[in-house]
Write a structure and sequence with these properties.
By secondary structure, the chain is an alpha/beta fold. Helices cover 41% and strands 20% of the residues. A six-stranded mixed sheet has the order 2-3-1-4-5-6, sandwiched between helices.
Amino acid sequence: MSDLRITEAFLYMDYLCFRALCCKGPPPARPEYDLVCIGLTGSGKTSLLSKLCSESPDNVVSTTGFSIKAVPFQNAILNVKELGGADNIRKYWSRYYQGSQGVIFVLDSASSGDDLEAARNELHSALQHPQLCTLPFLILANHQDKPAARSVQEIKKYFELEPLARGKRWILQPCSLDDMDALKDSFSQLINLLEEKDHEAVRM
């Protein structure tokens, strides 16, 4: 092969590399989803969201009204509106449901019987609320690292999720601050449900 042919071959390879690196355009924007996060005070909502945002969960103060966090994942950004879980705030939760595309419900799996009953009632109310009943739900049984934590099977049975949520999109997952891989996997499953709902809307 002549020197000219060799030079042309190298120039063409350089051109292909340049196109691959510089001419493919910006990466596609990650989809964003607006979610509402609810649960009783002490369930750990704020700590979990702070940890997902790579913030220190130390000295976390319970949300008294509402706060919004943009939680980044590789394939989506979740704009999470966290609502305070105190008795005097829960009655106003429904005012903040509009525009939500999914729901995160956090419960303390090691809580007292009274608090677990209150969480059960709030979850039932959310699952049946007109603005939420068709949305994907991620239900997190938090504080699994505590000795008194109830298992996922116990939570599912006590909360009567099988009969109540039949036909709905929901995920029940155990979690704790000590197992971030499991927590991130739970949110990945929620993102899959959100994407499925998006695709269904496009087909309609």
